[in-house]
Amino acid sequence: VGPGSRVGPLAFTGDFIEIGAELGHGATATVYDCRRVLTGDQLAVKVIDVRRLRRLEDHETALRRLEVEVQALREATHPRCLGLTDIYRSKRWIFLVMERLSGGELFNQIERRKRLSEPEARHVFQQVCEGLAFLHSRKIAHRDVKPENILVASSSEMPANEGGGVRLEVKLADYGLSKLMGSGSMAMSMVGTPQYWAPEVLASGGGSAYDHRADLWSLGVTLYVMLRGQYPFKGERQNQ
Questions:
Q1: Domains in the chain with CATH codes
Q2: Position with higher pLDDT, 38 vs 213
Q3: Does residue 114 have a known ligand-binding role?
Q4: pTM above the 0.90 mark?
């Protein structure tokens, strides 16, 4: 990041400008709308405050997860995965520039419409399967597959001979909890969203291990939520 760069509003002189919209923020990062000056492409940039990240109690884990997220974004070169366009680093900031998808989360579609029809859900499910299979082929376990982490790129009318309804084009996103699964390596952390946890993830609380195949359970729960508009399992506590 050169001397012409600034944050809040964010501008990359000669490359990116920030056009004023904050898309969301968390404890250590803020996501902005931006566009590439030379081409006019609409993009999104995740601005990570490294100084604030280092002040977290479990900062070593947070830094490791950030590096895995960056690597997963670099590897996510499949049409059904949200990928990294550019990365910029300074002493304090990391800028992850990504595609900007205007359709919001799949979760919002389900919430607004209560549920998807079977043809609509099938079309989405196939795309997510393709994206997830690609990540697994790159030895990446997503570990947080759910409708909130599936982004809608576009929507159109589905032809009657395909079942009718709305055709959603989607991409799998948010690799913040991903894990790189090397030869023989296993995961042992209870991360992700409890409603989508596989049994082996729950068992990891007792010292058991799991691998990328736990994503398939989460994928199945996601399909159920698309079709029914509710979780398949109910419980007031984590162990239920």
A1: 11-99 (3.30.200.20), 106-228 (1.10.510.10)
A2: 213
A3: no
A4: no
